[in-house]
Amino acid sequence: MSILILVLVGLLSAIIGALVGIGGGIIIVPTLIYFGMDMGILKGITPQIAIGTSSVILIATGLSSTLSYIKTKQVDIKNGSIFLFGVIPGSFIGAFLSNFLTIDSFNLYFGIFLIFVAILLMVRNKIKPISYFQKEKYLKSYTDANNETYHYGVPPIVAIICSFLIGIITGLFGIGGGALMTPLMLIVFRFPPHVAVGTSMMMIFFSSLTSSFGHILQGHVDWFYALILVISSYIGAKIGVRINRAVKSDTVVLLLRTVMIMLGIYLIVKSFF
């Protein structure tokens, strides 16, 4: 029974992650806690184990996606590396901050986070990019696979501070951070959309790698659960890519944010009772 649940969780999280590009951690973590702590089906699950195990899974999915995007020249490695100076230490610190989470505090904070991400998904296409950082001294350039050159501003201090905060959230909740990193690159730094998505996946890989190291040091990873989830997530990602060709992404985003708002409200209410 537990293996079947893990396979389904891995498939579902990877399919949705591939369709929307937000990473499967948002689904994996609360689901593991529900079947572990609420239903008692998955043994040994605590908020920390769920978060640590999710972080390990995201290493595989992040690496796979990053390599694919590098082949299509959608990853700005040079300029994107600036964000690594923030996201790497941030995610490592976040992994240790997760020690302070109880089941009630996790439900409350993760519920608030889910609602915030759902709102962000709702308005991300309506917010106009900020042009303040597009000064000549901040401008960076990148040439994609079509030989089109883009120019966008990446002030190092602002980039490092923003990515540091996102890194903390990544390590704290065991999520990829793509739901925050992609809009940040689009709205604040004005990356072209296809480059923002690919570069964001590079951030997810490194943040997951670092946060996983922190969680492994603390014994927060169930390797049996992780192995099953990695295999099923790999298959789910392949399915998600195929579905993406047949289903409108806007429909998937609408469904996802509706579920996230409902789940967020449920977790917040549950934290008080």
Automatic annotation (TrEMBL):
It is a multi-pass membrane protein. It is found in: Cell membrane; Membrane. Keywords: Cell membrane, Membrane, Transmembrane, Transmembrane helix. Its main location: membrane. Pfam families: TauE. The chain crosses the membrane at residues 6-37, 49-70, 82-101, 108-127, 157-188, 195-217, 223-240, 252-269. Belongs to the 4-toluene sulfonate uptake permease (TSUP) (TC 2.A.102) family. This is Probable membrane transporter protein.
